[in-house]
Amino acid sequence: MNFSDEFLEEIKNRLSVSSVVSRRVKLQKRGREFIGLSPFSNEKSPSFTVNDEKGFYHCFSTNEHGNIFTFLMKTQNLSFPEAVERLAEEAGLELPRSDPRDVEQASRATKLREAVEAACMFFQVALQKTENKKALDYLHERGLGNEIIQSYRLGYAPPRNALKADLIRRGFAEDILIESRLLSEGKDGRESFDFFRDRVIFPIMDARGRPVAFGGRIMGEGEPKYLNSPETPLFHKGGLLYGLSLARPSINDKDQVIVCEGYMDVIALAQAGFPNAVAPLGTALTETQLELLWKLTAEPVMCFDGDKAGQRAAARAAGLALPRLLPGKSLQFALLPSGQDPDDLVRRAGPEAMTKVLSTLEPLAEIVWRKLRAENTIDTPEHRAGFKAAIDKELNQIADPLVREQYREMFNDRVWDLFRPGWRESRQRKQAAAQLYAKKYERNLQPLPVKSLRHQILILCLVNHPKLFDMAEEKLGAIKFDDEQLEHLRQYTLVLIGHDPEISCTILRESLAQKKFSNLLSKLDSEISQVHAFFADSKASPFDAIEGWEHTFRLLVDEERELDRQKLAKELAETGSEIALSRMLALHSEPRAIDDIGSDKFRNRDN
Asked: Which one is the CATH code of 5-90: 3.30.420.10, 3.90.1010.10, 3.40.50.1220, 3.90.580.10?
């Protein structure tokens, strides 16, 4: 919908920036401005200012700047039309209608909304009547208190067309009640009748908290257990999330949304202290609902039942999200105990159990991997080939090349671990490998300056195997390279991997190329990995890369110690210094680094 500048200005004239912002930010008057803590960052000193005279806010910590419309859009995840509509209502302004058909449609929609609102109030009142005590008792037995019942406007639909009689008496036209699906149209000349009868009622609200439809649950035996309103001009179930209007403030505060399967899950979680829960409306998660969730937070939490149906729902959600992933935008999964849903969990084990579940979330990649492992066997070469083909097919769905590359890197590592023989290298084998490396180095390192060559090996091996970062960061960071260009390469490499620990070799080298390191890396590839250190090549196995990097570092450490010993020996001979003597004795007491090839750190990695 298009809004004229005059209409937008009228809203801004009626609503000051401070009045809108102060609902979310505690403001203090300072001169002609207001100041408070930024809603866009976690700061301790206020850097957020509001100027009513100029009609804007500005955040100095994040550089966010805007007016009352952008504030609602950014803090409440609203679209521009939604923000305008909400602020216009607060300002007491009717939304402009230019086309006569729009006016007629708006008038019709208003009548439908009034009917649904009247029905919602009717159901709420009916729930509290003495003759309907069984419905209120049912909700209490499900662990719901009166406050949460009121918050979610729960109600009861009596039998025998009680709703129809009440609304007709209050002047609502029968065709409006049928169009809003409060009534079902009678067939074969029969009269229309209440759509919901003798059911507990769960009102379904739109984004602004207005009822647009209902869900009804039977209290005893019978089918269907849940009955939902059919779609109407007000209600499109694939585009709404149950409980969102009530959950939105908590979602914004926590930057987390919990996605459950049903109405009772959402309400039970809110009762237990988790008001940031929502649910699809009786169907599998839709693309529209997924996009809506991503507007709320970057990684929504899927919290489905612990039974097989819940696991299938999780797999469907993963399949829906996979093609649409973007850097930083994904899903997380809360895995519930088998056979339990969130409602069961918090009623039987309390809020602490849900807190524990939310503290052990699994990423989308884990769900995808588990699904692929469950669907494939790897007991023969043919089955292994089929497994790898299934992985390729699954990951090819990811449209974003950066995310797809990261998934490939992770899954390739998993496949390597899965297919690797079960035996582990013993200490003797590692020592034998170390001796083999040493012989190769003694033969190959002679033509070039040894120290410089080892520096080149260490940095190239890390560039081609970024997963060495945790092991190599501190050690490599302590080394000062004599070559200025190599020193710059070391600094940029550590920074890039530090910012993204999951970065792949391909992406890392592309980033380094942008920093003008292409020629240097090409030279190192040809002179180092092809001649002196096969393990530094990108095609080398992770095991060889780890062992080779560690061995090279130990040789470098031993060389530095030997130089220190020579300097101290010379100083001791010339001065007889006691300090030099004590440092010399300390150095002699330290074992050679190369003798520690079987250290606990690396034994623990494989055992």
From this structure: 3.90.580.10
